[in-house]
C-alpha cells in the first residue's frame, strides 16, 4: 500500500520550499461565478422580492408563490426542535449553553463596557460600545449543513445584544434539515427564510419588502455566496471568506499515535482540500503515527475523502525540537493548532499566530468544534496572522467620544489650527480658532 | 445669490425619500481601473522588485535604478523632521503624544490582556491577544498628503506592539513632503519607501526581495490603491475602503451660528463629494446658520470646493425636536457627529450609530481631526452601523485557548461525539471518543 501522506524533514535543504508548496492554496476566483452573482445581486436590488422568488424557485427548484411563503413559522421551528431524539437535543442544548457561557465571558473581558476618562482641564475622552442592530446568518443547505455552525454564528450575536437575527438557509427541492432548524431555535434566531445563494445575500444586504436589511452577514456558503458577500461588503459588514479547514498538530511523541492519527483524519474528512499536518521531533513516533494512519484509514466511512486530503495536502514533518516546531507553527498560522504534549503551556507561550490552540492530549479539535465553548469559526489560510475567531466583538462596534471643555479648546484649538494650516485646510483651522477666547 | 445648500423639513411627507436621495452614494467601481490594478498586482507577484521599479519609474516619473534606491535613509527622515518650523514641529509632537495617550488607554481597556478561566473539572478556556508582526501604511502623495493621517495610522499599530511598520508614499517627480516624513519619524515608522499605487500595495501584500511582506495594509489611497487593496484582502488584512467624509451636526440652537457654519465648511472643504448636514429643531436658528454660510463662504480659500459640496450633498434639516434629531442621526450613522447643545450627554445616550461623537459646542470636529486623541480614521457611508474607528484592536488578533482536562474530556467527548455523528463526521466523533476512559 502506498504512503497516503507526505513526509518532510526540517533538516532538509529544500524544506522551506517544500513547506511553502504544501501550504500554497489559491482560492480560485471564477469570473463566470462572480458575474453570475453580480447579476443576481443587481436583480435583487432592483426587483426585490420578485427577484428573490424567481431565483429561489429556479435554483432551488421551489414552487413558492411569494417570499412570505418562504419564511418558516414559529410553529414549524418548534416542531423541528420537538422532533429530535432526546439525546441529540440534549447534546445540542449542552453545546449551546457552553458556547453562550464562553461568549458571555468574552463580552465581559473584551471592553464591551467602553471607557471614558477626564483630563485635568475637564475634557472627556472615551469610547462607547454598541451592538449591531440586525444580523443575517447564512447557513448552507444540503450535505454541508452543520447545526453546530448555526450555534457558533448566532450565539455570539445574541450575547453581543443584537436585536434581530435573520437566518437564511436554502432548502433545495423543499428538503429541510430539522437539526439545523432546531439549532436555530436553541440559539435564539428570530426569523428564518428558506432562501440561499447570491439572492439571499442580496436580500439581506439591500432589504426587500419582505426581508429586512441587515447590518452584517456571517456564515459560510458556496462560491456564489462568497462572491456575493465580497460584492456587498461595504453596504453591510461581512465575516472572513473561509478557505479550506486546517489542523496542525505539534506532538512531543507522548500521545497515543492512534489519537493523533484520528485528529488528523477529523480535519481531512471535511473535504479533499482540507489540510492536516503533524510536526514532531521524534522520528520513531512519526513512524508510529503513519502506521496508525494505515491501520485506521480503511475503517473510516469517509475514507476516500480522508485519503485524498492526506495525500494531496497532508504531511508528517520531522523537526529538530519542539522550539522549532513552534517557530514553524508561527509561520503556518494554522486555523487549529493542537499542542499534544506534556506541559503544553510552555510551547503555547511561544505561539503568536493560530486561530485556536488546543492544549494537552485531551483537547482534541473535535471537542472545540462542537462544545468546548470557544467559537469554531476561525481564520484559515494563514489569516490568523491578522484576524481572530468569530466573537462577540464581531457584533459590536465602537464610537469615539470627544467632549472638549472650554479650557481644553484653548490648548487643542491652537495645535489643531497650526496643523490644519500646514495641510491647507483653512476651514478646519478657523473652526478650531472660533473656540479660542 | 442662490441658496448654496438644500433645506429639508422632517415634517414633509416626502422627507424620508428626500433624505435617502441626499445620502445615496454609490462608489463608482471602474472596471478599467480594477483591471489595471489587477495587472500591476500580478506583475509584482511574479517579477517582484523589477515590477515595482518599472511601475514607479513609469507612473511617478521617477528615475530610480533599484527599489533599494527608493527607500529613504534614516538621515533623510531626520532631516525632514529638523527642517520643520519649531511651532509646527511642536504641534505635531503634541498631537502625537495625545493620540498615543488615548490609544494606550484604549489598549488597556479593550481586553488586550486576554483572559482565561478554569472550570470545575479543571478544563481551562480563554483567549490570547497578540499584535500583528508587521504592518504597511499607505500614505497618498501630492495634495491629499496629510501628516495627521500618518500619526493616526501608525500610532495605534505602535501602541498595539507591532514590531515593524513599513510606510509607502509615492513621490511623483521625486517631490517629497517634509511634514509627512517628519510625522513618520514622530510616529515611529520603521522604514519608508517612496512608492505608491497598486505596485506599492502588491509589494506589501506579497513581499519582494527588498520590501518585506506585511500582515495588514492600512491607509487611504486613490481608486487604483482601493482596487488593489480589495484584491489583496485575504492575503493580508486591510482597513475599510473609505468613502467621502461626512459631518452631521445636531444643534439645539444655542451655539453661535458662525461656529456651526464653519464646522460644516470644515467637512465640505475636503472635496466636492464630502457631506455636511445640520439637524435642528429651531427654524430661526437654521435661518441664522444659512445667513452665516452666505456671509462666510466668500472668505474661504477653498470656497469653490465648499460651495459645490454644500450645494450637491449638504442640507440644513428642520426636525420636530432633539429626540427626532437623534433618531435621524442613527439612521444616517455619520462618520462625524457633533452634538452642539446644552447638556449634550442626554442626546449622546440616544445615539447608537456614529463613527465619532463630538459633544458640546467646544468640541469642533477639527480638534478631533488633529489632536484630541481618538482616531480620525472613521467609518464612512453608513458603515458605522457595523464598523469602528481605527484602533489598537485593528493591530491585534486573538487566539482561542482550549485546554480540556482528562475529566472534562469525559463530558465534552460524549456531547461532541453525539453531534458529530449527527453531522455525519465520524472521525470527529471517534477522535472525541478516544479520549473517553
UniProtKB/TrEMBL annotation, chains A, B:
Annotated binding of substrate, by residue: 245, 267, 270, 336, 369, 423, 428
Q: Which family does it belong to?
A: Belongs to the histidinol dehydrogenase family.
What's this chain's function? Catalyzes the sequential NAD-dependent oxidations of L-histidinol to L-histidinaldehyde and then to L-histidine.
Q: How is the cofactor bound?
A: Binds 1 zinc ion per subunit.
Name the cofactor(s): Zn(2+)
> Which keywords has UniProt assigned to this entry?
Amino-acid biosynthesis, Histidine biosynthesis, Metal-binding, NAD, Oxidoreductase, Zinc
Q: What's a GO cellular component annotated to this UniProt protein?
A: cytosol
Q: Which reaction does it catalyse?
A: L-histidinol + 2 NAD(+) + H2O = L-histidine + 2 NADH + 3 H(+)
Residues annotated for NAD(+) binding in this entry: 138, 199, 222
According to UniProt, this protein's pathway is: Amino-acid biosynthesis; L-histidine biosynthesis; L-histidine from 5-phospho-alpha-D-ribose 1-diphosphate: step 9/9
Q: Where does Zn(2+) bind?
A: 267, 270, 369, 428
> Mind listing the GO molecular function terms for this protein?
histidinol dehydrogenase activity; NAD binding; zinc ion binding
> Can you name this protein?
Histidinol dehydrogenase
Where is the signal peptide, in residue numbers? none
> What PANTHER family has UniProt attached to this entry?
HISTIDINE BIOSYNTHESIS TRIFUNCTIONAL PROTEIN, HISTIDINOL DEHYDROGENASE HDH
NCBIfam families (UniProt xref): hisD
Extract one GO BP annotation from the record: L-histidine biosynthetic process
